Here is the input.
Amino acid sequence: MKKGLQHVVMAGLLLALASPSFAWFKFFSDSSYAKTRYPIVLAHGMAGFDKIGLLDYWYGIPDDLGSRGAKVYLTQVSSFQSSEVRGEQLLAQVQDILAITGASKVNLIGHSHGNQSIRYVAAALPGRVASVTSVGGPTKGSPVADLIEDASLAVGDDITQGIGSIVDGFGALIGLAAGEELPQDILGGLASLTTAGAADFNARFPAGVPTSACGEGAHVVDNIRFYSWGGTGQVTNLLDPVDLPILANSASFIGTEDNQNDGFVGRCSNHLGKVIRDNYNMNHLDEVNQVIGLTALFETNPVVVFRSHANRLKKAGL
Ligand code: CA
Here is the structure.
């Protein structure tokens, strides 16, 4: 190739890469990619929080969505409480967000026990919720909670109450560190997440819940869209100190029907509404990009999964 021609080709390539219409460039720079019509409200799981100092529960996710045009709101409920108490706490915060923003609806996304919180709010405010998205949510409960319940029955009430008080204290500390003084009740929280507790909640809040053991739920109920995704990984990044405890936790699933799991929630239990994907190579904490972004190298980055979902909501006009 002649030198002059080489220069023209090089200049053309550079121009294409720098051009805002070039797809690659657009993907990384599009400030409206996640610009949903309605605000996105994030609801954390058990033992969770909104933000402690610089540490986000949703590590890097709100900033990423925000830089692509989404209005994102973090919420904070009791770390350990029943689905109903946490749902009531979230309801008050969603009403505030609706009032402050003047938005007519919100998109709710809940991780883990946040699944039940957002479904509670959707049932209470059907006209004000555009979508409900569960991430690693125990729709059908978790054998981890079943096992703890069995163990507490075996050791008796006194020891269970004693351990419960210690964990409640831990939950209160998390709340205080995150700037909120909230009541804690680990035993109530666990009772909500047993297979029986989840089934009881599902009977009262059936929207989006699959009626078969491992199918999808209704995609739209009362004009609210329901979505879910989850993982089936345990040890996904050797640098992450929580991966081994998560692997140990996954032993709770041995002998259960829904035994592929993320350490806390089974593959089928994570289904709600339209199943986007139920078997990412992610453990329960990877799903929210923890700990500090240590996730599987050869899996879609959790931040990108949230980003794509915001774009999905945007395209659906939500
Ligand atoms: Ca991780």
